[in-house]
Amino acid sequence: MEWHFKEGQPIYTQIVDQMSRFIASGSVEPGGRLPSVRDLAAEAGVNPNTMQRALAELERSGLLHSARTNGRFITDDKDVLKKLRSDLSMDYIEELFEKLEKLGLTADEIVWAVGDYAENHHDTGHNGQTGEEK
């Protein structure tokens, strides 16, 4: 996992956000075991206490669970993972709308633009064709 931190926001919340996106993307297998707190902290270049705090937050949210002596594991609960993806999607959509509304676009214009983009510029992943190849 590649870590990127910004000034002005607590590191542990950035770790929570980045790990949530990592889990949502399916980059790790549901039920998969995480490296130790120390290993993750070293990889991220943060204090182990900071990493521990972030992992505890992810446990509280249901994305991780601990097995006493075996470490931490990513949830394999399909409902939790579906809700995570839905929540992240809504966050991205909200951010998109805010930015485009600042440019003066209406909600209808934004919806049209997204549909146009999906149809003409984006590989849908369903059949391997882009909109231009249909």
Helix-strand sequence: HHHEEHH
Helical fraction equals 55-70%
How do the strands line up in the largest sheet? 1-2
How many beta-strand elements? Answer: 2
Q: Unreliable segments (pLDDT under 50, ≥5 consecutive)? A: 126-134
What's the rounded overall pLDDT mean?
A: 90
* N- and C-termini, Cα separation: 36 Å
> Rounded to an integer, what's the Rg over CA atoms?
18 Å
Shape: elongated
Number of helices: 5
Derived structural class: mainly alpha
**Major β-sheet profile:** 2 strands, antiparallel
Instruction: Report the portion of residues in β strands.
Output: 5-15%
Task: Summarize this entry quickly.
By secondary structure, the chain is mainly alpha-helical.
Question: Notable features of this structure?
Answer:
55% helix; 134 residues; single chain; mainly alpha; two-stranded antiparallel sheet; disordered C terminus
How would you describe this structure to a colleague?
By secondary structure, the protein is mainly alpha-helical. The chain contains five helices and two strands. A two-stranded antiparallel ribbon has the order 1-2. The relative contact order is 0.10.
